[in-house]
Specification:
Layout: H1 15-23, H2 31-70, H3 78-112, H4 130-137, H5 140-166, H6 168-173, H7 179-220, H8 224-235, H9 238-259, E1 265-268, E2 273-278, E3 289-295, H10 296-308, E4 313-315, H11 317-326, H12 338-351
Parallel strand pairs: 1-4
Antiparallel strand pairs: 1-2, 2-3
Membrane topology: Multi-pass membrane protein
Main location: membrane
Function: Required for formation of the rod structure in the basal body of the flagellar apparatus. Together with FliI and FliH, may constitute the export apparatus of flagellin.
């Protein structure tokens, strides 16, 4: 169904469709947003380490000048000098690299979360198919990428022009200033230019992310036939069947818990089994009905709800086991249990000063 025209794909993607796409690494992600995040991280790192940077460089050159005047540089001393230089360069670059890495990862995780696309690691020979490559070159996505590239160049050129022409009068005064003032001027211009370019690219990146989300949803859409086929396939999936059964059990348990407050009595094992019985003399039923039953945790929950609502909880191991094994929820108790249940109900009714009606022809 992959060759179906886009206009036929009118159905929203199913959870399985989204999950399969995620497994293949097919997610909505903007590279532009990652690039801008890295740029912002680099700018902030340079901004906050600029004082340390300048102090370290000054100290290095001063120490190098002092040492060179006191000692003669030889082949033996050169490795030591180079090692010092490498350590200084590493100390200068490490904060910037770490910040850039953190910002890049944060942008990526913010867009797609923590994801391990296993299927994306499997080699796909279709990607190196020349015909597929040509199709990708002339696809709408490629045209959009080309347009984005052109737009970035235009933005960079326009912002650079506006910032640089803003200081054209100051350029004439540079000849009268000291080297440190000239450097300070160009650094401030550079930072202003970088900030404005970053803001422009950030706006563009946010728009690109919105477009990528829209395009991703559009590509994931399904035809009506694809939805039908997926539902048929899932019906035979053991995981899906197991999930459906689990949901059904939860629904049954929920309905049973809602019915427990209406019970006449709860018969227990006493710890492992609980069966809730309801007997309404005014109804057409000849015998009590099982309205809830459960083992272990479910049994404990039935007993807890029964006690909270004043429903008598009676211990009778043989009866509890028999009712649990032979009676389904909603079923009247078999005649073999009439006598025992009648005795229990008679006791409850006598404690409540009520007369027990005839139970299936057997009087308690």
């Amino acid at each position: 169904m992959a060759d179906q025209p886009a206009q036929d794909k009118t159905e929203q993607p199913t959870p399985k469709r989204r999950e399969d796409a995620k497994d293949k690494g097919n997610v909505a992600k903007s590279r532009e947003l990652n690039s801008v995040a890295v740029l912002i991280g680099g700018m902030l790192a340079i901004k906050f380490t600029s004082d340390y940077f300048s102090q370290t460089v000054k100290m290095f050159f001063r120490n190098t000048y002092i040492e060179s005047s006191l000692m003669q540089i030889t082949v033996q001393s050169l490795p030591g000098q180079l090692s010092k230089l490498m350590l200084i360069v590493a100390s200068l670059l490490l904060p910037i690299l770490v910040t850039v890495l953190v910002f890049g990862l944060a942008s990526n995780i913010g867009q797609i979360g923590f994801m391990m696309a296993k299927k994306a690691l499997i080699p796909d020979f279709k990607r190196i198919n020349p015909l597929s490559g040509i199709k990708r070159m002339f696809s709408s996505r490629s045209l959009v990428e080309l347009a984005k590239g052109v737009l970035k160049v235009v933005i960079l050129a326009l912002v650079s022009y506006l910032v640089l022409t803003k200081y054209q009068d100051e350029y004439l005064l540079l000849a009268t200033q000291t080297p440190s003032e000239i450097i300070s001027f160009f650094v401030s211009v550079f930072f202003e230019l970088t900030i404005k370019v970053t803001i422009a690219l950030l706006i563009m990146a946010v728009g690109d992310y919105a477009y990528q989300k829209y395009q991703h949803e559009k590509e994931l859409k399904m035809t009506k036939q694809e939805v039908k086929d997926e539902m048929k396939n899932q019906e035979g999936d053991p995981k899906v069947r197991s999930r459906i059964k689990s949901e059904q059990r939860k629904m049954v348990a929920s309905r049973m818990m809602q019915a427990v407050p209406e019970a006449t009595v709860v018969v227990t094992n006493p710890t492992h089994i609980a069966v809730a019985l309801k007997y309404d003399p005014q109804s057409s039923a000849d015998a009590p009905k099982v309205i809830a039953k459960g083992k272990r945790k479910l049994a404990e929950k039935i007993k807890k709800i029964a006690r909270e609502h004043g429903v008598p909880v009676i211990e009778n191991k043989p009866l509890a086991r028999g009712l649990y094994e032979y009676c389904e929820v909603g079923m009247e108790i078999p005649i073999v249990f009439y006598q025992t249940v009648a005795e229990i109900l008679s006791k409850i009714y006598s404690e409540n000063k009520k007369r027990l009606p005839r139970l299936g022809g057997i009087n308690g």
